[in-house]
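User: Okay, second chain of the day. Same drill as before: sequence in, structure tokens out.
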Amino acid sequence: MLSAVDLLYRRRADLIGDGTIGDYVALHWLEWNGGALRLTVTGQNVCDQLKAESRELQEQ
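Assistant: Same drill. Structure tokens below.
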């Protein structure tokens, strides 16, 4: 998920697999907005949780 979001922010959504996009849209983590993908509030919350877990693991 974090790598997909990174690609979105770098405007390289074309590098995200179609199946991955479909899965994230179905989970309501991403949504289509005027022909472009964007992160939903739920998707942002998931990213925040993943980042927090990653920091915790690095601190151990």
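The mean pLDDT is 94.

User: Thanks, on to the next one.
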